[in-house]
Amino acid sequence: MKAMAEAAKTIAGMFEGKTDYDATAFKLAAETLRTKSGDALIAEFPRGSVGGSTTAKAEIDQFPDEFAALAHHVQTLAAALSRAADTAPDGITDNMRMKPGTGGMGSSLLGKRAGPTKELDPSEIPAEHVFHLMLQDCTSCHAKFRSKPL
């Protein structure tokens, strides 16, 4: 989990302009997120492993399908970020940046959007938006499945 957090910080720093864009570092961070999510993340929390030194809540055993869906969705989004690094060797391009009206997925400040939402193909939306969607998945997962350390 620490490697995933560091990788997310690396990408965030580049999108926020706090660190210079480096396609190799961006790619490495995205690949870290991709390889540590999905089945690899699920394997970190086998059924019945709650307790001891883990901060996982009992809900991880109670709702394994929801946890798995989030873990796999993070992996899908991280793969899209990795592909974005391949197409931007010299810097963050305009097509990688979020634009007004990009928020076609997720929720509004007032709660869920009315009507059905269509899952977008991450390769068709800006990498910055993909990154924010991935962070939203991480936040959702932590809120439901992680207890705060004492």
From TrEMBL:
It holds the Pfam family Cytochrom_C_2. It comes from the Bacteria. Residues 91-121 are annotated as: Disordered. This is Cytochrome c556. It comes from Aminobacter ciceronei.
